[in-house]
Amino acid sequence: MGTIQINTLTNKIFIGAFALLILFSFDVSAKKVKFLTSTLVPAARGYVKINRDKNLNYNLSIKISNLAEAFRLEPSKLNYIVWMVTDDETTMNMGKIKSTVGFLSKDLKAKFETVTSLKPVKIFITAEDDPSRQYPGKEIALTTNRF
Hints:
The structure is a single chain. The chain is α+β, with helices and mostly antiparallel strands and 147 residues long. It has one domain (31-143). 16% of the residues lie in helices and 41% in strands. It is built from one helix and eight strands, in the order H-E-E-E-E-E-E-E-E. It has an eight-stranded antiparallel beta sheet, with no helix packed on it. The N and C termini lie far apart (53 Å). The mean pLDDT is 87.
């Protein structure tokens, strides 16, 4: 009877250690938020990944596929601009995102990365002619829900 209890205890310890290893191997601080389907660019799909670094900044990483070039929209635009809504309801221009064609496919892809000290609660992308504008236009290409 003594060996059965030891084997059971050993198995429980092993399973617990394995579960902890799996749990800590994932980035538990990362949040991945998908963009909603768009009427302006309905084929576009993507997400925003938000991480906090050791300095308590927010690292935003955006990946999008099938994002049509801005000049192909109706009305035609020159750029896609990433906007962030902060927890105090401020809307900020985070920069210009660029579409590129994939290496082995014709899929249009877009990537964007930035760091901010302000807490994001929503990310959206608009089609604009002026990349330095301070307020978003009405042509919203992609948006997330509040997170």
